[in-house]
Amino acid sequence: xxxxxxxxxxxxxxxxxxxxxxxxxxxxxxxxxLEEIGGDEHIKSIDIxxxxxGESVRITPVKDVIEPRVKVEGRGGIFPGIISKxxxxxxxxxxxxxxxxxxxxxxxxxFQEGIIxxxxxxxxxxxxxxxxxxxxxxxxxxxxxxxxxxxAVRMIGFKAAAYLGEAARDLTPDEVKTYExxxxxxxIAEYPNLPKVGYVYxxxxxxLLHDTYVYGVDAKQIVxxxxxxxxxxxxxxxxxxxxSACDKNPSYVHINNSVVEDLYAQHGKEINFVGVIITNExxxxxxxxxxxxxxxxxxxxxxxxxxxxSQEGFGNPDTDLIMNCKKIEGExxxxxxVTDEYAGRDGGSQSLADADVLANAVVTGGNAxxxxxxxxxxxxxxxxxxxxxxAGGFAGSLREDGSIEAEIQVITGATNETGFGKLSTVTY
Length: 428
Description:
alpha/beta; globular; disordered C terminus
């Protein structure tokens, strides 16, 4: 598959009479956008606010972050199976409003949504603080069940990103990058002397509100399978989960997976990037065994020399991570695992819930238990009271002066396992 990704760089966002992009500014007709994304019976009110890098603004609880894109040529449409009809994507041309994102917030869905600070020390750890954010504040009707609440806010976010993405349809991109993955036999023939490298992409699927969608299907229902890397760039995989903010993959991260970007950068030079194997993270032992068996089998079947394995979540998924590592290594395929750590506030505890001697090449996103103090912000979007009980917070996290003391895991994307976050990585 060959995909041309055309980026339109957004330097500012403003409300206006017409939704359009001019001179790097995304103008938004607020009333039209509200009409486009509204109408869900589970949501009693929706509002939109605009925030920019460096502003004294805190957004919490953050449900999802989504980059506006539009498919302008090729099969299918953006977010297939969610917004567009089900069709295979990842080829043709896609335009991106780069430098901005839709952020969804409102009353908390679960207890693990996080914080985005647009300035201060929290912003230094949050990759989304550098974006011009269109914040959609969706408040549910009283008494709404959590799974209905999650779905309603999820769909509003995708509708918002698709609506804004249309503003890029007829524009000439500021930058165009081409990504191509050829069928396996052609790829091997093209670079016969380069090591064949794949990417094992673990998706969060562990129970209610721990959902990831592949072409609209809850990934709990899949067995490991292969994707062209470019399929991710058209939104074939999106987030629906409410796991710990620092190590969940918002939809923005699925679309902008930095492991994929880095592997493409070395493709044809130092490695032959063969493709992506997606797999799920399971609750029951038999399911963990099945998925890790299939993942290792696919690695061998493709004749891979090495793989990078990234994890989403922590604790229980550490078992899936180590199972994948052990079984892939058992097929004589070298592995590098990418994860974060929960090593206690002093950094002295066991950092993963599982381990093995074969996991001897590790890239870490940092210790999510590290304490941080976030200063008071001038403006709050969402519900600030949630910081005392979201993952990483505790009774008294929200101080009387408006500042917050909490573990770094409260920050959205802070230690993201795809390498997308800002923490320095260390290879053991």
